[in-house]
Design a protein that fits this description.
mainly alpha, Multidrug-efflux Transporter Regulator, Chain: A, Domain 2, two-stranded antiparallel ribbon, about 60% helix
Length: about 120
């Protein structure tokens, strides 16, 4: 009697799981990943989308469980790169600069008269 001590699934287990899980339409993929279809098509246009399977003779596009898994692994790897970290820092600095510009604006809420701020607060309730 042998027991399996390897916590990672072997290739056969993954292959069987792939057969049991259905492939996804683009809409189902978007729901699964909690992204909009517009975001999906943008990702695809940038060359970062999952591999798609087109059913011959039709325009039906499906995303297999294997392609979905590989896409997630690829995104995870890309998120760990130095360029990704630099991009995160650049965007954070961009947000800080936008906040400073907004606060410096003469139309900022902090520059409104007190009675105008009170009316705004009352309308929200």
């Amino acid at each position: 009697m042998s027991t399996k001590t390897n916590p990672l699934p072997d290739e056969e287990d993954v292959a069987v799981d792939d057969l049991l899980q259905p492939s996804l339409t683009i809409k189902q993929f978007c729901v699964c990943e909690n992204i909009s279809p517009a975001s999906y098509f943008k990702i695809r246009r940038l060359g970062l989308g999952p591999a798609e399977m087109v059913i011959p003779g039709t325009e039906i596009i499906r995303i297999t469980p294997k392609a979905h898994r590989e896409w997630r692994a690829r995104l995870e790897q890309q998120g760990k790169t130095t360029e990704a970290e630099l991009e995160r820092q650049r965007r954070a600095e961009q947000r800080r600069a936008a906040g400073k510009r907004a606060a410096a604006s003469p139309q900022h809420v902090s520059r409104r008269p007190i009675h105008a701020r009170a009316r705004t607060t009352e309308r929200r309730r």
